[in-house]
Every structure is written in structure tokens, then in C-alpha cells.
């Protein structure tokens, strides 16, 4: 390849789609998983379109963490860089929300909210998930700033401070112990969970974790700053941050429209997929939080790369088989 030839030049010279909206792959979702898949596919000279509704889950966060080489990067800045990389290799990225998906004889047809339709030979769902937050006033308003859920994603930023843990999940003891690693001042508000078992009580007591019984009425705040956890009886416990465990629900509407079923687990609902992202539906892959409720940004990006490579390999094999069939002479079997 000439030093003056770019990946985009090669994509432009490659055989194009059979009509305006015919693509090898449509990726629904332009987050870390979807854009990583698009880069992988475009680098293999695939005609790939990313459709992004512009609703990144981590938009409220100040930074994305545990991402080697980009530690603390603002999430929207990271996505903008990812879009530039995908476009540089010839991928297409367009804003929009896909409302319906149906299978056709040769792939899939997707309809967007604006009425436009696109077709693809393969489909990658990288639509992420929705955090269903507990119905406690103040939680949603402070979500992503003073209210967090992942000790690994944002725990370091509240290290050494007064941390409250709102009991909304059977996983609350594990979450509390992880946060206790980061601060000596941790309070567990049982709220909506039963008393810990004997072993759990012993661990909390030995680590100096305060346990508060009774339901939480609200999170007291002064503007955009958290002040205290207020109990149903009106008493308040001052805190600097609160951890909650949302219910994680994959954005799986399109998957269900195509005949798939979301898998239930104690943390929420997701699409079941194999390590390369293939789902139970032929021609449909999934990457990122839609199939892995606990994946952080780096893991989601890696899953996008794996899914993109698997889709390209599938298309390569399909093309090779078609070439063999086309090369056989009628009546000879060769």
C-alpha cells in the first residue's frame, strides 16, 4: 500500500452497497462498544453504519476510570474521539433512534424514529442499559455526582469521606465491604433489605461500619450538593456520598422484536451472548452493557472489538462459500 493511501481511500475503492442504505453491518449504539466494533469492521473494509441515539449512560459522570491511557477522560470527550477514529477508517455514524427491527431474507431492516429505513447483512446491538434507580427523592438528582453505584468506577473519588450505602439489593453487604476499603467512615442504611446474617454483622462490626435500620425518606441536598441521608422519622445522618445498587435493564427492545428473550439475573435483565458476542439469534451480535451488566468502559470497548472481528469472520466465511458455489459449473458438481 502506498504511503499516500489511507484506510478511507481503500474503503471508497471497495465495492459499495447494492443501494443507498445497504450495509454489511449496522451497529445500533455509539458508545464504547459500538464505536470499537465499527473501527474493527471498518479496518477490515466493511461497509458499517453506526446509529446512535445520543443517550450515553455515563454522561453525568465527570470522568471514565480504569481505562488505560485515558484515565479520567470525560465520557463525551472519549466518545467524540471514538467517532473521529471510526470515521477516519470509512465507517458512517449518524444520529437517530431505531424504533423497529425485522428480519428479511438477506439480513435486517431497521426503521428509525424519523421514518428512514436502513438494511444490513448483520446486526450488532450495543444499546447499553438503563439504570432503574430506587424511588428515593434526591437519588436521581445527584446520580453520577454524589450518588454512585460502582466502587471501582467512582469509589476513589470519594475515598476517606463519609459514605452512606443505601440498602436496595441483596448485594449490599458486598458493596459495603468494597467501599469500606476506601473509607473508615461508612454507614449502611438497611432501608429495603433484611438484616445481615450473623457472619455479615460480625464483619461490619469488626470494620466499624455503622448499621442504620429503618427506611430512608430522602437525600437532603443543598443545590447540587449532598448533605445527609434523612430517615422516615426525620432524623438525618450527614454524608458526603451515597452508594446505591440500581436494577440494570438492557435496552433490549430491538432484540425482543427479532424474537429474542432477555435473560433475568439478580442484577437485572440482559442479552445472553457468547464470548465473541454472538446471540441466540442468527446474524445478531451484542456487545457492552446490553449483554454484560457489569462491564466498565474498557471491557465494553474490548467486547466491541471481539464482536466486530467475529462479524467480519462470519461475513468472510459466507463470502467464501458463495464464491465456491458461484464457481461450480452446472452439471459437473465442481
UniProtKB/TrEMBL annotation:
Keyword Oxidoreductase: yes
FAD/NAD(P)-binding domain boundaries: 23-291
Protein name: Thioredoxin reductase
MF terms in GO: thioredoxin-disulfide reductase (NADPH) activity
Domain of life according to the entry: Bacteria
The organism of origin for this protein: Cellulomonas aerilata
Region of interest (Disordered), residue spans: 1-22
Catalytic reaction(s) noted: [thioredoxin]-dithiol + NADP(+) = [thioredoxin]-disulfide + NADPH + H(+)
UniProt lineage: Bacteria, Bacillati, Actinomycetota, Actinomycetes, Micrococcales
UniProt keyword Oxidoreductase present: yes
UniProtKB keywords: Flavoprotein, Oxidoreductase
